Amino acid sequence: MNQQPADIVGGVPPPEGLSPPTVPDGRLPSDHTQAILEVTKRVAALLKQSGQPFALAGSVAAFAHGLPARFQHDTDFCLRREDAGAAIQALEEGGIAMRGAAEDWLVKGRSGGEEIDLIFELARRPVSMELLDRASVKSVDSVWMPVLSPTDLMDSRLAALGEHYCDFGDLLPMARMLREQIDWERLERAHRDAPLPDAFLYLLDRLRVIDRRKVAS
Predict the structure, then answer these.
(1) Nearest partner of 149 among 20, 157, 198, judged by Cα
(2) Whether residue 137 sits in one domain with residue 123
(3) Which residues lie within the region annotated Disordered (predicted)?
(4) CATH number of residue 143's parent domain
(5) Which of 142, 122, 134, 149 is nearest to 65 (CA)?
(6) Do both 61 and 161 map to the same domain?
C-alpha cells in the first residue's frame, strides 16, 4: 500500500490504534456524521485484527481524502469475496450484527443503528488484491486504515453510471477537490467509449477541471 506513515508496518497501525473508543458507555454519538465515523473506526479495527485485506470505500473514503463529510446512511468497506467469511466472523465476534443482502455482491451489518456494507464488487467488478494494494493508509478521525485511492473511487463511480443512475451532483465536487490526486489518463482510457462517463469527462473539460487534450494524448 502507498503513503504509509513511518510507524505503520504492513499497513497496520501500532496497538494503540486497534481499539478506538466510541463513547464511555458504548453508545454512538447522536450526531449522524460522528456516529458513522465511530462505526467506521470500529469496523476497521476489527478487520485489521482479523488480518484480512480491506479498504475503506464510499463517502467516508472521499472524506478521508479531503472532501467535506457528506455521509449518506452507511459506511462501506471493500474486501475480496474469498476473505468474507473470516471478516464476517471477526465483526460478529466484535459485537456487530451481520446479515445477508438481496444482492450477491455484498453483505450488510449494523452497529448502534448505523449500517455497514462489506462490498465484494465495485460496479460489477470483483474486488481484487491489485485494487486493495493501490489503497493508501489514511487517518480517519484519528484512526489509521487503508482507503481506496482517489482514482479508484472515481473509477468505480464512473463505472456505475447508467440509464437508471446518472447523477453528476456528487461526482463534480469530488473531481474538483481531488483532481490533482486522480490519474485522469487512466480514467480517460477506461471510460471514453462509455456514453455517460464520457459525458462527465466532457463536462469536466468544459469546466476546465481537466484538459482532455492532455489526458487523452
Answers:
(1) 157
(2) yes
(3) 1-24
(4) 3.30.460.10
(5) 149
(6) no
Q: Which of 101, 133, 148 delimits the end of a domain?
A: 148
Three cell numbers written together for 207: 469546466
Tens digits of residue pLDDT in 157-198: 999 898 877 889 889 999 999 999 999 999 999 999 999 999
pTM: 0.82
Q: What is the C-alpha separation between 79 and 48, in angstroms, rounded?
A: 12
- DSSP codes, the chain: -BS--TT-BTTB--GGGSS---STTSPPPSSHHHHHHHHHHHHHHHHHHHT---EEEHHHHHHHTT------SEEEEE--GGGHHHHHHHHHHTT-EEE--SSTTEEEEEETTEEEEEESEETTEE--HHHHHT-EEEEETTEEEEE--HHHHHHHHHHT-BTTB---TTHHHHHHHHGGGS-HHHHHHHHTTSHHHHHHHHHHHHTTSS-HHHHT-
Look at residues 125, 119, 126, 20 and name the one whose alpha carbon lies nearest to residue 61. Answer: 119
Does one domain contain both 142 and 45? yes
Sequence letter at residue 205: D
If 0-12 CB within 10 Å is exposed, 13-18 middle and 19+ buried, where does residue 152 land? buried
Which residue among 97, 131, 148 closes a domain?
148
**Tally of structural domains, the chain:** 2
Q: Rounded distance, CA 140 to CA 61, Å?
A: 8
